[in-house]
Amino acid sequence: MSVHARSGAALIIAMASTFSAFDASAKDVAGRYVSLYAGPSSLSSTTLTESRTSGGTASGDTSFDTGVGFGGAFGYRYGNGWAAEVAWDFRRHGVKKIGTSSVDGDFASNTFFVNGYYRFAKWGDIRPFVGAGLGWTQEIDIDIKRNGRELSYSRSGAAAVQVMFGGEWDLSPKWSLVGDVRLMRVSTGTFDAEDAAAGGRISGDIKYRPVSINLGVTYRF
Known about the structure:
Blueprint: H1 3-22, E1 31-43, E2 46-52, E3 56-64, E4 67-77, E5 82-98, E6 101-102, E7 104-119, E8 126-146, E9 149-155, E10 158-170, E11 175-186, E12 192-193, E13 200-203, E14 210-220
Antiparallel strand pairs: 1-4, 1-14, 2-3, 2-13, 3-5, 4-5, 5-6, 5-7, 7-8, 8-9, 8-10, 9-12, 10-11, 11-14
């Protein structure tokens, strides 16, 4: 876990604790809930080198298209503003360029999180919230197509963290519309070729730090 991620999570917990101390009206109804959400996702550039036995090398700053993220969660609200959930998140971004080489492909992840939230008192019809999560990335996959050939590289088991902030608007006693921003960070590591016999290798300081904007719905049991 990076220093920035730990600092962000600590700040959110401290903010929530401070507000809960003097804001009793932040309490909501206790009970289980499910959520579904989706939206656009952006991915900051990173540095990598991809070399091939046949096809040469592409190296340098790598940029990505705006991608998409979606997921779902099952959780429990404790009736005092706090909530905990287990969530699944998928994100995918197209690869545009590696250094000066135009390429095609994608950079995608499949991650499971344990998240904690604090929901504040309503501001008008909107109940703002903050949250943080610890996760396990089942797979991060990079597919790169250049010179008419696509090769795939992946890693699994990476640690992940995220912070969230957004708002909730009640549609009925059971249903809510939810919007949030999520900042995710995954620990760095080595990507291996999925087909070792294909003659491809990828290396570098490969960072995976997507930021997504989600719109979704929550149903409270």
